[in-house]
Design brief:
The chain has 354 residues and is of the alpha/beta class. It contains 10 helices and 13 strands.
Amino acid sequence: METKKFLSPYLWDLEPYVPGYQPQNNEGLVKLNTNENPYPPSPRAVEAMRSAIGENLKLYPSFDCLSLRSAIAKMEGLSTENVFVGNGSDEVLSLCFPAFFKQEKPIAFFDITYAFYKVYCKFYQVEYDAIPLHSDYTAPLSAFHGQYGGVLIANPNAPTGIAASLREIEEVLRNNPDCVVLIDEAYQMFWGHTAAGLIETYPNLLVVRTLSKGYSLAGLRAAFALGQPHLIQALINMRDSFNSYNLDAIALAGATAAVEDTPYAVANAKKVMATREWFTEGLSGLGYQTLPSAANFVFTRPPRGDAQRVFEALAQRNIHVRHFTAPRTAEWLRISIGTQEEMERVLAALTEIG
């Protein structure tokens, strides 16, 4: 039976995002392919979620998410009017495309970055320019010089892990006063710097962060955007045009408690960062070329560039990492940083694989 006739024509050519492999059985597995935090979430967050399970689940959750927005605002030294919250950063980013980026001019982002950006462009029919990274995978931020309908920068970038300085980010903001500059700070916790301090100065700045990575809440789906009130209200209007209750009561309780216990997350991030530096040094000893990472993963090239072989050999040893087969990334592996014990196992496996 011909089923295509039942679909909207614009759906025919969509190319959905392909997430990292999620194995059903984690026994004996070292899972380093989706940049999850190897440490558990705050015990206070877990207890808050347990406490939220009860008779009140018969009621709709708070539509304004005020408890979570207040906790984030306090953490960032901002007002609740500067905070929008969503069901993971993928939802927040998705709302940004129709809210800010459907312009006469194309938007711009780097050719090697979070793959979902191109998917959003196709879905929302937004034209874009993919600016090539330099040959060393650093970002040519001077390429964003005012001719675009929006600028989208993952900082630190993924999958490279390289971070642009706040001075460079501010230069992009100055050069693009007439469009939104979105800084996707999914990995900010593992770098320690943020563009949020520039929000008061730049009405075109929007900072997006997730609780998946730094707060160990990938399974919860919670994230936020920071910006001046006119940008936040635009996101609220977009959200309320299709789903006013985008965070459930359990997620709100857990996310709020996690943000209020940010020192716990920071302590875990420091452990990840220490292991990242140890692992990078170990890779160097094996002849791997590893880019300087400010994230909870490394982007590394085996000595012979045979990333596919190493990827498959690791999988045979129940170690899952990420391999991107596009021409500019085919010789590289992205390896999430796990616990110290897990990374010792990975390094031993790579030594054995050769």
